[in-house]
Amino acid sequence: MADELQTFKDDEGFVRLKETPRIKxxxxxxxxxxxxxxxxxxxxxxxxxxxxxxxxxxxxxxxDFPTLFGFMIQRDMLAKYAEMPAEWRRWxxxxxxxxxxxxxxLKVYGQDNELPVVLxxxxxxxxxxxxxxxxxxxxxxxxxxxxxxxxxxxxxxxAFSDIPQRFATAVARTQAKNATRIYSSATGPKAAxxxxxxxxxxxxNVTNKGVLPFTLTxxxxxxxxxxxxxDPNGERIGLTPKYLVVPGSLEDAAWAALTSTMVxxxxxxxxxxxxxxxxxxxxxxxxxDYLETIDLTGTADTTWYLFAEPGGASALQMDFLxxxxxxDIRIKSNGSGGNPMxxxxxxxxxxYRVRDVHGGSPLECRYAYCQVGP
Length: 374
Description:
The protein is of the alpha+beta class. The chain has helices spanning 21-36, 41-49, 65-83, 149-154, 163-180, 216-227, 251-259, 291-294, and strands at residues 7-9, 14-17, 94-97, 103-110, 129-136, 139-148, 184-185, 188-189, 198-199, 205-206, 209-210, 241-246, 262-265, 272-275, 284-287, 303-308, 316-321, 328-332, 349-362, 368-372.
């Protein structure tokens, strides 16, 4: 990367912000100003325009400020984005794709079933195998934020200083909702992942959907159903149920089922306390608050999910565009080569744009099980 200021414009005139030694020097000085000056960001935008900030060295010209300001907003937003909790990242694997085309995640099956006996002098036999795959792709999401030059001038209270936080929140919410949409939909559990049965890409019928309400007994039964899943050759896959995903309405019941040390044994005539087996299952509870807003059926608050620990495969995946992982902010050029913070020629408008590229894909259906409780 060359030492000089580096920018480039896209087709709409937005300038992308790049870090260079010169920009680093400017950021250091601006950080010092912010640390010792009670002015908000929006106030010292106006200060710099009128050359009232004396702490900037002559090496940083006023014309550099839009890039410095934009870079700081980008960095501030990324910092706030990284600080925001993302429950889905605890259990959904992530990856990258090189472009916006549909990409195949290859699935190879066969050759891992039990070996047959080979008698003396007899030939070795072959076992069938095959390949298939799951589609993966990403989508661009974004929003434009416009503010008039007059609003910047009048913003003595710093009302617009939380824009990076708002952008970070918007990106985090979009990713979280799309993570939920990988396995849930307006009509209930995602039809591309669950069924009674569903036909997998290997051509086999897989049943991974039931109608049991959430109880400790039904959780145990669903664990066993998942552990009994077989590959196309009829071999047990050996899945380990790992994540119990529930809506907020089932959070307390799920915590009680997983953490209670004693439960009532119902097999005897007189129920007696007995040790809770869930403590040794190693399940992690995931509470997805978006399930009850994305699933519009009458059973959204009683539907619960079990996912296996990702190994050679996984039930779902969130992908990002390679080289563009995480949100991106750009500031629009005013079209005349001047300071973008002075606004454009037509109406003195200043424009920012936030963008994020990601996409979720349902994959191996055997690694998931759902129960649509009544």
